[in-house]
């Protein structure tokens, strides 16, 4: 008898699926969950090979921009959402400099499975790609964290009322140009771990093995060895307590980065 009638007295709920290497996305996902009040967080890496629970009316993705596009693991994850066609979907992408068409890509990949991305938000955070640059100073980091708070409040307002909002992107010219780099380069990401190597500071603690979200690191004779199915999330390099993991030739003196409020333990558990 009640079929077709929306039961407004039932509390609506949100599931936020996140992927993170250095904690920015977990920080954003947690703050957003706190603002929404009725949200649960699920680490994409912990459920990528499992059945997922799609209960709740609103589903969000929070992930970093990689190479001007989506992390490969997040693209792979999207097909698991197929069963949730009636849900309200939103996405938040954190980025360090240029996010380009990442969220448009997300909308396209959703559409391929008959899903609608109702809103897409960009949040600027400290960059973490040490192969190209070192961490920005703490003052600049804190400014970005502060700025994210207002944006997250606004996202929570839009999401909780299930509004359709703009899919945010960079300017058309820049976005189009850089998206080409993703198209040409993203397929090479799994094998890009060839660039990692441990220097003499490695003390065989094994943290790099535990922190890798896709089990791509093992210890061989006490030293890390990479297995060719990398996401390039930088977790192994950034969380090594000895700063012993290098990439190519220029990372030894670059300042490492991970979000100051996210702890190693947060990344080593499955669902937070
Ligand atoms: C492999 C890789 C590629 C990246 N590419 C971009 C990029 O194209 N544009 C950008 O603005 N930031 C880029 N970044 C920076 C991250 O998107 C940014 O630091 C993000 O907030 C990291 O999130 P996390 O701490 O949750 O891992 C890249 C980072 C990595 C590790
Ligand atoms: S985390 Fe660093 S010190 Fe520990 S095993 Fe890995 S490379 Fe070595
Ligand atoms: S090997 Fe390192 S960079 Fe690659 S997915 Fe694992 S933690 Fe991330």
Description:
It is built from nine helices and nine strands. It starts with 13 loop residues before the first strand and ends with a helix. Residues 1-10 have low confidence and may be disordered. The chain has helices at 24-36, 44-47, 72-78, 102-111, 138-160, 172-185, 207-211, 235-239, 264-268; strands spanning 14-18, 39-43, 58-64, 88-95, 117-124, 196-198, 217-220, 223-226, 245-247. It folds into two domains: 14-183, Flavodoxin domain (Rossmann fold, 3-Layer(aba) Sandwich); 186-268, Alpha-Beta Plaits (2-Layer Sandwich). The strands form three sheets. It has a five-stranded parallel beta sheet, sandwiched between helices. A two-stranded antiparallel ribbon has the order 6-9. A two-stranded antiparallel sheet has the order 7-8. It is globular, with a radius of gyration of 19 Å. It is α/β, with parallel strands linked by helices and 272 residues long. One iron/sulfur cluster (SF4) binds at residues 198, 202-208, 224, 240, 242, 244-245.
Name given to the CATH homologous superfamily of the largest domain: Flavodoxin domain
| CATH first level of the largest domain | Alpha Beta
Question: Numbering strands along the chain, what is their spatial order in the largest sheet?
Answer: 2-1-3-4-5
How far apart lie the N and C ends?
Answer: 38 Å
Element pattern in H and E: EHEHEHEHEHHEHEEHEH
Which stretches of 5+ consecutive residues score pLDDT under 50?
Answer: 1-10
Structural class comes to alpha/beta
Q: Helical amount among residues, as a percent range? A: 25-40%
Q: Mean pLDDT score, rounded? A: 93
How many discrete structural domains? 2
Described by strand count, sense and barrel closure, the largest sheet is:
5 strands, parallel
What CATH architecture of the largest domain would you give? 3-Layer(aba) Sandwich
**Any idea what the shape is?**
globular
Number of helices: 9
Percent of residues in β-strands: 15-25%
Task: Return Rg in Å.
Answer: 19 Å
Number of E-state strands:
9
What is the CATH T-level topology of the largest domain? Rossmann fold
Bound molecules: flavin mononucleotide, iron/sulfur cluster
């Amino acid at each position: 008898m009640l079929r077709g009638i929306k039961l407004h007295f039932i509390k609506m709920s949100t599931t936020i699926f996140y992927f993170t290497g250095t904690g920015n996305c977990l920080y954003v996902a947690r703050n957003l969950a706190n603002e929404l009040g009725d949200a649960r967080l699920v680490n994409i890496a912990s459920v990528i090979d499992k059945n997922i629970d799609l209960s709740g009316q609103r589903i969000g993705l929070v992930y970093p921009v990689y190479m001007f596009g989506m992390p490969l693991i997040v693209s792979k994850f999207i097909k698991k959402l197929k069963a949730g066609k009636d849900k309200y979907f939103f996405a938040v992408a954190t980025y360090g400099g240029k996010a380009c068409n990442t969220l448009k890509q997300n909308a396209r990949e959703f559409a391929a499975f008959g899903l609608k991305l109702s809103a897409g938000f960009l949040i600027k955070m400290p960059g973490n790609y040490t192969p190209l640059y070192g961490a920005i100073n703490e003052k600049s980091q804190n400014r970005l964290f502060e700025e994210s708070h207002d944006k997250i409040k606004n996202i929570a307002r839009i999401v909780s009322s299930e509004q359709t909002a703009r899919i945010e992107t960079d300017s058309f010219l820049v976005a189009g140009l850089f998206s080409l780099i993703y198209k040409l380069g993203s397929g090479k990401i799994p094998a890009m771990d060839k660039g990692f190597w441990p220097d003499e500071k490695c003390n065989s603690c094994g943290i790099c093995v535990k922190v890798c979200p896709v089990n791509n690191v093992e210890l061989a004779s006490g030293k890390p060895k990479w297995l060719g199915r990398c996401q390039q999330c930088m977790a192994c390099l950034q969380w090594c307590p000895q700063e012993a993991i290098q990439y190519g030739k220029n990372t030894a003196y670059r300042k490492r980065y991970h979000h100051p409020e996210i702890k190693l333990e947060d990344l080593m558990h499955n669902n937070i």
